[in-house]
Amino acid sequence: MQQQKVDNQFYSNHSARLAVLQGQDAAMRARRLHLDCEQVVPFMRDYQYPLSAWPIIIGPERVAEFEQFVARLPRLYLKAVKCLFARGGEQFAAYLNESPFIHEMLMAPDFDFSQMINRHDVVFSGGQLKLLEVNAGCAVGGWQAGLLEPQFRQILGEFAETAAWQVQHRQVIDHLFSGVLAAIKRQGAGLGKKILMYCLEEDAIAGEAFRERFDLTARALGLAGSAPELLFFSDFDELTFSRSGAVCFDGHTVDALLITDMVASTVPKPIYLRLLGAHMTGRLVMPDSMLYTIFGNKLLMAMLHEPALQPQLSEDERAFIAAHIPFTARMASESVLWEGETRALRQLLRERKDEFVVKKAHSAQGRDVYIGKFNSDAEWEEMLDRVLGDTDWLAQEYCEADCASAPDLAGNQSAYAMVWGIFDTGNRYGGAFVRGMASDHGRGVINSAQGAVEFCVFEQAEPLAA
User: Fold this and answer.
1) S-S: 415 plus which of 83, 281, 292, 439, CB 3.0-4.6 Å?
2) Using CB atoms within 10 A of its CB, is residue 451 exposed (0-12), middle (13-18) or buried (19+)?
3) DSSP secondary-structure letter at 128?
4) What are the CA-CA distances from residue 129 to residues 44, 212, 320 (Å)?
5) Pairing mode of beta strands 229-233, 194-198
6) Is the C-alpha dihedral spanning 359, 360, 361, 363 positive or negative?
7) Would you call 417 helix, strand, or coil by DSSP?
8) 328-330, strands of its sheet edge to edge
9) What is the per-residue pLDDT across 381-432, written as a single tens digit (0 to 9) for each?
């Protein structure tokens, strides 16, 4: 990565001041998280990704920007689907590589956004929020660092100036549970007062962490003693169904099902269809229904740039897309409209290689991503030969991530290029985390599975004193 401008002030006054303090104090730069101790929740004691000891602190402007983005994007996606594919289930399926059955569900009136769980991966590029992709469903990661809130607060409290700061943290898991509880209350669901969470047998420690956060959320909502019970299971064959179609487990009717591991595609099809039937008939709250996980399809970004859609959008909607959704096109397209001119896609990607990323629509963890400026001409050409024409690949305008200053794991103050994961819990902003890669390392992919450092995100709760 090339050196980018570093601007902590963009995020908050506290963020800017913290960078100054860290630059002046070797003890702050050397501070580390010590996870193998009793004070740390057991689930986080052997966390697999590197974590910064210092949170990123954002101010009200960034919070408001995240809130507005989270509220608008899913609704714009749904409007685009209805405009382009109003009567074309097969066209919808061919464009997005999805089941035509989802098209029928999306066309229904009064779409319920309240059950969705999304993580929007964005960068600030030149100070402008740009979407990279959306990950949908309860299995999305990034919330884990928030479980270390007490440790981050302890570190802030160890230094005189930061100890006086008033900051707050949005616990993503708490917001997820709040949204599910609200959805159950609104829908009625199965009225069995049971929430069922899929958890692998070897993840019993994770189950304990979920149960603790659920109990804290219920108490905060005034539901102590009256909240649904949180249950865990590890085998979909343990589920049964009543004559009315309600989902049952261990003799209990289930109100909500949460799949917190990436196994949704391996759920036995007959069982998944019955779960979906319960969900569609109002008997089950199910954020991992295909009705919601489709919002993680990266091809939706290409759909927003289709020329046929533009006349059907308002001026404000077109401005939102221009500002926040990088130009995206399906690799199955022979030609695209680029800067007002129709261009052959292969020719455009050859001539403007350094301005594009090519990636798979259904993929995760930084895999299947080719960033033109970090590939040789030969590598780029080989990739084009392989994926051009493939319906599950897309080309996207490359957005260079802005940098912020923070201590690296060696105790030096470094510039980190950052990708923000901002959470949508029931179509509301539910918190964030950051992945950062030192600006002089890597090949453009900033992902925890590719070596990025994770940062917890706090919010500035009061103005910084002059």
Assistant:
1) 439
2) middle
3) E
4) 30, 34, 10
5) parallel
6) negative
7) strand
8) 328-330, 393-397, 356-360, 369-371
9) 999 999 999 999 999 999 999 999 999 888 899 999 999 999 999 999 999 9
